[in-house]
Design goal:
mainly alpha
Length: 180
């Protein structure tokens, strides 16, 4: 059973160790050790790598940990995280786009036709709303848009802006409801 769900168990152990680490070493001390500049680099790398639904928990844990110190400029943090997440998400878009050629299905053809018949602004707006307010992995969204043959340049900016908005939403929720 452990081999079958190896990714899940690794993630679970990482999260438990991260929570224990944060309990032992408060976030303020962690930032004083690694420094604020290194913190920005660290959150950029976890955002870039943590794009999958299975690997996004370390990104969220790192982001919330660094935010809770109050030492980071939230706008700069959003500007660092947004392109990293969008770049990582573009790999899933490419996976879906290339997967469309492998998976031949009339349902995919219908979805692609339906998606491309929508007005220009609908798909980027939906991608922005999903990436801004849904605390769910964006890999599902990006694979679906790739399979539907959405235009990459139409949606990647909306996804990046949505990622920045998501960071700001987390910040507002964290400081207005959790840390008060």
């Amino acid at each position: 059973m452990i081999r079958r769900y190896k990714g899940f168990w690794i993630l679970l152990v990482f999260l438990v160790l991260w929570i224990a680490f944060i309990r032992i070493i408060p976030p303020k001390e962690l930032v004083s050790v690694i420094g604020v500049e290194t913190g920005y680099l660290f959150v950029f790398l976890t955002a870039l790598v943590g794009v999958s639904g299975f690997a996004s928990a370390p990104y969220y844990a790192t982001l919330i940990t660094l935010m809770s110190t109050g030492d980071f400029n939230i706008l700069l943090l959003a500007l660092v995280v947004a392109p990293a997440c969008a770049l990582g998400d573009s790999l899933f878009f490419l996976l879906g786009y290339k997967g469309n050629a492998v998976i031949e299905s009339r349902y995919l053809d219908k979805f692609s036709c339906w998606l491309n018949k929508k007005p220009y602004w609908v798909t980027p707006f939906a991608a922005y709303m999903y990436s801004s307010f849904a605390p769910l992995p964006q890999d599902f969204l990006m694979v679906a848009l790739g399979l539907g043959r959405a235009r990459f340049l139409h949606i990647i900016g909306a996804v990046a802006l949505g990622n920045a908005t998501f960071v700001l939403v987390i910040y507002v929720l964290l400081f207005n409801f959790v840390l008060t």
